[in-house]
Amino acid sequence: MGAKDPEPTVPIADWATEGKALKADPSSFTGYGENVATIRGNLESDNMSANTALRGGGEDTSLSTGGFEPGADLTSVVWRNTGEMAACVPDLDQNIAAIASVALILGDLYKDMDGHNKSMLEACEWAFAMPGADTPDNLPYYIDPKQTIESLMAQTPTGSPGGDVADDQLLSASSFTGATVATYKTSDGGIRSVVTTPDGVTEILTDNNGKTVYEVTTTPDGTTTTTTYRDGKPLGQTKSVSKTVESGDVTDEQTITTQYDENGKAIPGKKTVEHIVTTKYDDGQHTREYYTEDENQHRTNERYIGPQPDPVTGKDWKDLADQRLAETRRTLGGM
Which regions are flagged for Low complexity bias (predicted)? Predict the structure, then answer.
């Protein structure tokens, strides 16, 4: 007679062994998948403003001014952490997309299954692209096994406005009357060209397939127009115009951003105004308020910087050194 099997070291809940069989309603998977997809869409639309808020923006991004070394070290650590958080947000977006996709796939698969636990488990493993999982026999014709989130991410042309250009390699630079042209090769094989003229600066990025990814033009009056492309065709346009409104000791720096569709029509609800309001006081200090307003004057991304003096600059240090030197000369008898 063999030895008795040992008792499990981790207690098993009664519902897992003695409860009723779980029922998977296909419609619940579909509804759940649609809801999660909506959450993902909201996250994607808010991603840019969230990353901007992480970085702080405006003039108040330094934790220490005047060359205080520990403050500079702290600023470096904070920037590293915000960089990691900025990288986390797109990863979170991708993971939520995966959950939504799996739920929708299971909703389609389970409606044609007989409820056999093994088959349903295998379908779940396949939907999550787990190694060794077999393709379900009842896979609908419109689900392409090759179109995984990972494969779609790999097919997406890289390069976007505001990307890191530190690794770009200069290919050529030339100049002619009143203008310069510089061409760079990006780290992913694309081409970025920058044309500077008296009328402004235009930057164009093409991917490694030769298709335009974006075009950004900035004019001397502070207007920036960004046109994005998909498969080389215009997808939409964003125009930002800057202006300053002054009233006494209060200065309101405004950036008005309007989004347009591929036909050049303004998209309803896609106009925002970013404000940087600076108030100066008689004692030399100032306060600063940051916020974004939508078309209904609803505020978001609010940030308030309390009373503080202007940041210390290199000129301030030189003036202080000259002042101390003059005081020392007087003390030593006019030397």
Answer: 217-228
Closest by CA to 223, choosing from 206, 205, 197, 201, is: 201
What the block records as the tokens of 30 is: 């579909």
Is a pLDDT exceeding 90 seen at residue 173? no
Residue-wise pLDDT tens digits, 203-243: 999 988 888 988 999 888 888 898 888 888 888 898 989 89
Structure tokens belonging to residue 238: 């964003």
User: What Rg value do the Cα atoms of the chain yield, rounded?
Assistant: 29
What distance in Å separates the CA atoms of residue 114 and residue 137, rounded to the nearest whole number? 12
pTM of the model: 0.52
Order of strands across the sheet that contains 212-218: 169-176, 179-185, 191-197, 200-206, 212-218, 224-230, 233-247, 250-260, 266-280, 285-293, 299-309
Q: What would the two tokens of residue 107 be? A: 């909703």
Structural element, H or E, at residue 228: strand 224-230
User: Nearest 10 degrees: CA dihedral of 14, 32, 89, 160?
Assistant: 150
Lookup: tokens for 178: 């009143």
Q: Which two tokens stand for residue 225?
A: 């127009």
